[in-house]
Each structure stands twice: as C-alpha cells, then as structure tokens.
Amino acid sequence: MADSSLERAKKKEVIRIERESVIPILKPRLFISLANLIKRSSDREEFLKLCKRIEYTIRAWYLLQFEDMMQLYSLFDPVSGAQKLEQQGLTSKEIDVLEQNFLTYLFEVMKKSNFKIATDDEINVALSGQYLLNLPISVNESKLDNKLLRKYFEAHPYNNLPDFHEKYIIFRRGTGLDQTTGYFILEKVDMLIARFWAFLLRTLRLEKLVARHGKKLDPKKDDEINSSSNEAHQEDVYERLRLENMPLSSGSLLSKTTIQEPTFDRIIVVYRRASSNSKPDRGIFVKHFRNIPMADMEIVLPEKKNPGLTPMDWVKFLGSAIVGLVAVVSSLQTATTDLRVIGAVLSTIVGYCVKTYFTFQQNLTAYQDMITQSMYEKQLDSGRGTLLHLCDDVIQQEVKEVVISFFILMEQGKATRQELDQGCEELIKEEFNESCNFDVDDAVHKLEKLGIVTRDPIGRYQCVGLKRASEIIGATTEEIVIKAKQGNMSS
Prior knowledge:
The protein is α+β, with helices and mostly antiparallel strands. Helices cover 55% and strands 12% of the residues. It is built from 16 helices and 9 strands. It has helices at 2-11, 27-36, 41-76, 81-88, 92-112, 120-127, 148-155, 185-203, 219-227, 311-334, 339-378, 384-412, 417-432, 440-450, 466-473, 477-490; strands at residues 13-16, 116-117, 168-182, 237-240, 257-271, 285-293, 379-382, 453-455, 461-463. The chain has a 5-stranded antiparallel sheet. The chain has a two-stranded antiparallel ribbon with strand order 1-4. Strands 8-9 form a two-stranded antiparallel sheet. Strand 8 and strand 9 (461-463) form a beta hairpin. Helix 5 packs parallel to helix 12 (384-412). The protein is elongated.
C-alpha cells in the first residue's frame, strides 16, 4: 500500500509559483487586531492614532507622483488621449519622452504594489494545458506595436523577461486554487479524440509535422518540484487535476469529475496596438483581470486571433465529408448518363460543402462569444480605473508594511533585519493565518524615512515610543480638516 501511494504521489502534476510580498490582510482588520494585542487601553488608542498618521503621511508622499502618472496617462488613454495630444501640439520626440515617463511611473507602481512580470515558464504552463477554456488561442502579433516596450526595456533592463516582452507585458500577483466539478462530457470526448489522433500520428511517425508551436514545460523542473519537501516552500506548491492527465473510459464519460488549477489572483496586461507611420496610434492599453486559472491564461492575451477548431469539430467535418463522399460515389456507380442525375449529384456535393462551411463559421462565432463572455466575467477594469486601483493598492501595502514592522519592534525590542523579517512573517501567520514573503528592506526604509526607528552600531533596529512616534510625524492635514469640521459642527 505504501509503495502504491508513493507511486500515485509521483504521478501528481504539481507546480511551484514564486510567492510575492503582498500582505493579504484588510487594513482596518490589521489595525484593530494589532491594537487588541496591546495590553494598556491608552496605548491601544495611541497606536491607532499612530496608524492613521502613518497612513496619511504615506498617502501624501505618493500624491504628487500619482497625479503626474494620471496626467501622463490622460495623453495616452486609448479613448480620449489622441485628442488631448493633438491639443498639446507636441512633436513626435516630445511624445516619445512623455510615454516613456508614463511607463517608468507605471512599472514603479507595479513594483510597489508587489506585481511581478510573468515569465516564459509561467506562460508556457498555459500553452501546455487546458482547464475550462478548451480552445486553441494565440496572439495576432501583427496587430501589436513592438516599439514602445522595446524602447522602455532597452533603457530599463530586466532579468528573465518573456519572449514577447517587446509587444506586450503581463504582470501577475497573488495565487489561489480554482476547483470545478461537472460531467465535462464534450471536453472528455474531445480529449479522447485528441489522444487517438496523437496515437495515430505517433504510429505513422507524423507528429513532428503537426507539432504545436508552444513550448513544453521542462521535465527537470517538475522533478525538482516533486522531490522538494522543504517546509518553507509547501504553500507555494499546487497540484493540478486536469482531464488531459486523467484515465478516461466509456464509464467515466458519464460520471462527475473534479478538476482543479492554480490561479493568479490579479493579472494586468500592458500593450499598444500597431499603427501606420502616417497615422500613429499612441494609445496604451492597461487591462486588469482577476482569478485567472494558469492553464486558461490565454484569455488575457491581447489582440487574439479567432480560435481554431477543436478535435470534435474536426470529427464532425471529416464525418460529413466521408458521408457526402460515399453518397456521391454510390450515386455515380448506379447512375446513368442522365443529366438530371448528374445535376443531383453535383447539388449534393455543393450542399455538403456549403453545410460544412456554415458549420465552421457557426462554431467559430460560438467560440468567439465564449471568449468574450469569459473576458467580461474576469476583467475588473481597464485604463484609468486600473491605475487608480493600483495607486490605492500601493498606499495600502506600504502602510501595512510600516505598521506591522513598527508593532514587532514595539513588542520585541531591538531586532536585526533578519529577526524583524521573521517576526513580521510569524505575526501574519499566527494572528491572521496568512502567508507572506515580507519585504523587510522596504519596510525599514520607510520607518527610517518617517524617523520613528533608530539603528545601533551593530545594525539592530529599535522603535521610539508610541507618543514620541506620533509627535515626530506630527499632525497631518487630514487631522486638521477633521478637527475643523468637528469645530464647525459643535458651534
């Protein structure tokens, strides 16, 4: 039994996703929960006051930067940007500088919001499998501009960029697991047909002639994942349950099946459409998606080609063609030279051709509608709405990092960066049952910028007292406005 269980475990398809530094806790819950851990009620009130001052101060830090980014984007908004650019009367070189400035702001905000650029390996996972969207989808690269992003990455080199980085870029953040139970009858039939087709090609040694252009996952990486037993990485490993890897039989076709796939909690895609030199299109698309299964990541690709046909469609087509051919041949064998018979045979051939053509067109239309519906359900926002969401998200993450790190120093006393990092991650796990790769360097930098921590000669950090921290930050504009409102109401 033990050997059998081990054998099944080895056959599991699992993938590891690098964890980001995002803190998955709502800010109000974080503030209240940490305050409740403080024994003295007066200190709890002072702590909540400090949290608010930290938030207002960090918001003020980013206000001008975010305003600059939004002003720049107004010139490159695909909807109204062209008109505003025309009103500015800028030269082509000046516009080039402005769009690169916008991308610099955008990439910095993405980094601060703990988004990562999706790598080739992660994209290839999507190309190597299927989940709920069982359609062959690819990008029409001729419709995408390749100058905007190429120029940016030439000036700002990144490691491990995907092959398509000059045409579009995909940011991802957060992971989860999607699970679906159903009969999946048509999908199972498609899978059986695809397996039979693959078997036939292998038998005839023709598989290389019709191989898909997508890259396959490196099997060494799967072995590395399967052999890993390090506790620190257990939560980064997700098991995939897909129809492609399940044993299918006539009995299982009519039974319910559970499939599951790891997801990216948030995905943002940035690209520009191709245009002619005589009439350049300066619009920059920024699209925001949620809860995207990795194997269905094709849904977020820009400028998708019309999807191809599934194995079931090809069976229907070949079946119709064979039936039509048999009918035509049988008619010719039994027919005389009567023109009416020959006309009937030709009409049959034309009828089958027309029927096959319209069936193909109907299927392609249905698939396009399916993709559109999936995008509608998964897309959160685009353009200005996405940027406003990102700006707020940056502030939320920055505030949470500072508050958590200050709380740990307040409760534990002096700590090195490593001790502070470990303490913050343990607090998040123990009090909120969440996992996070805490960005201690960024947190310490902001604490020092606020002036509420000190560092001794051997590199240990220590926070100032609660009241002293509030005094150092000082009364914020928001507090002054709130007091003024309260004064007007009382009078």
